[in-house]
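Task: complex structure prediction.
Instruction: return structure tokens for all chains below.
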Amino acid sequence: VKNRYTAVWFPYFKTDVLSRKDTSKKMYPYVLYVRDRGRMVISAINEKAQTLKISKGMLLADARAICSQLNADPDDPPFFQARLNKMAEWFIRYSPIVVADQPDTIIINASGCCHLWGGETSYLKHIWQRMNAEQYQVKIAIADSTLAAKAITLHGHSLSVVPANQTEQVVQSLPLSALGLSEEIVLKLHEWGFRTIGSITTIPAGVLSRRLGPTIKIQLDKMFGAREEFVKPVQETVTWIERLPCLEPISHLAGIQIAIDRLITGLIGQLKRKGLAAQKIILKSYRLDGKIGIVSESFSLPTIDIVHMRKILFLKLEKISPGPGIELFSLEATEVAPYQPVQLGFWQTESEDLKDKKLLQFLDSVTAKIGTDCLSRFLPAAHHWPERSFRKATHFNDESKLCWQTSLQRPVCLLKTPALIQVTAPVPDYPPMLFRYKNKLHKIIKADGPERIEQEWWINEGLHRDYYFVEDDAGCRYWLFRSGHYTEDRKEKWYLHGFFP
Amino acid sequence: LSNENDQFCFVGLVPKNIHQNAKKISNLDFKSYFCKRMEKSKKDIIAELKTELWLCSGHKAVCVRKESKSLSFLLSHFPENAFPQGVLHEFLYQQEEEKAASFAFTSVLISSLLNSNGIVVWITNRQLIFPASLCHFSLHPERIFFINALQQKEICWVLEKALQCEVLTAVIAEVNHLDFLLSRRLQLAAEQSKVSAFLLHHNSGKKVQNTCFSRWSVQPTHSVARDGLPGVGNPRWRVTLHKIRNGKSGQWQVEWADNQLINIAESFDAHLIQPVQSA
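Output:
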């Protein structure tokens, strides 16, 4: 398939962005300026200013001389860069591969997309209308290469379609600057009497490259689509994607449910054919007002179960707000893994596979409802420090080669942060006689310890802890520790860290 | 039931709710029904009939016949001398210390009476359980899924979903509030899947009314170190079974030693047992 590229050029991008909020700015000449070596240089203009022959690179003072009522604002390049990127993201509805070509062009890889809008002409018209409705002035062209499309937007009509394989004829008459060469080379070519692209295509390529370097040949190849131009899309393309454009914007629950059903069936069909299963999915809903609703979901094990996926997504239905209506749904599988029918590893219980699936479905629905952080399974870790002696399992089949340390007494309930207590301890390095926790006095009758646990200096610096296992007069058992050594000048601190059964 | 003069008739009070089911029985030809059974001993027949009556009155609990000699003192208080599955067990606690003891006792029940290798879901509410400590009670910490749910609404949702998942052995949860409606709803879910639920109910002395199958409380008591050595001994608890359907309530003083639950109430410290306080 021949590649087709659409270039959308915003001639007055910066001023358009600013005058959308304030339409009165459109009526009068309006410029943006940057400070450069103590001068104020115009960096962006609007259409009214252009008719007055104000151009970019002019000094603001000169422009004021032409038009005394000139509106001028300071420029903010990073803001406009981000704005163009955001704009490019919006254009993803026209094709999955969109490039933001700073400062004011968006390039769309429209290969195989145009027929969805009824041909190339109506594709461009659609973009044109949407942009005009949003009060952006644009010039759009579609051609075989990005460079050709860009050149034609700059020099051609506001809407131009270059038919496939006819680039050479169309760009013949364009000036040399459209090739994207450095100014030096263009000047030299001008000196030698070359004005248009057509005039240099007739000369053998070797002759020019001997005098001016290989760039001319490279740019010409790019222009005619013989060489791919490297482009970095605003969003990496996802291979596993299912889209559902809607004829009428959807704003009711039943419609969304049907849409999700269709997307899931399509996506799972795609994955099944390749023997894959989805690990992470993202459901996006593109709204009429330009907002994009995103619902992402990850499964504990890769799945191709339609019913399960449906259940999980339906749990999140409340998070999809249709607003004025949703015009496009897309379901992506952002992480996929080869599908394995038996995946339970060490979980294998006596029951059959079918039942084991239920556990996964239960876990997935919990994480979908409450959030992924709420679910944890603990495995032993090679640390003595109590808070670090266990770690969260990273995935469902995660196993540890270590064994749980059972030789030492450990409490069942641990406090997340040790609670400060007041104690009476008569002899250094002996357990306290009594302690006060939450305003209740506990008299200690029996005690074991101390068990000293040092800080792991390669992770964290701080005081060591001396742990005591104590029992009070009511028969309750606690885990206390003193932070650091006894010293004469400093009052040592005692903490309660856990409850023994 | 009595069989004087070859005549069979119901003796005693019949619970109201079994009237409808009783009709089915009365339609049977009693004589032939019992003649078949005459070969067995009288005791067996009565036991069998009791089970039947029990099932007719709407109980769907399935008892686990796991022989455990060391736990026979507990089992004798359960219906049919076996631990019921697929029901709600409620554990009342007031303080953090009692909660820790209840957690440990629950772990003991699961590991020694249900399945020590099963998958357990543990629904916590801001509480951090020290996983390694559960090894002391014969549970495998890596086979436990901890779910941290903050709101009561979320806890109930997860609890119900977990009870519908029949792969699990047991579900342990901390609840702040357990009323009649909620307990009934959870009971229905548990009945279907045969998953046992252990609900730790924080209760500040209020009267509880719900449909839990059994109601317990576990309090830590003074430990005794072996051979009179100084230091803290094995964990000891005062376990109170406030109520259990078709069983007897009771109170024990137990010690967890060498992976066994030992009943020490009769042998010693008998005076410590206080009269049963029904909640």
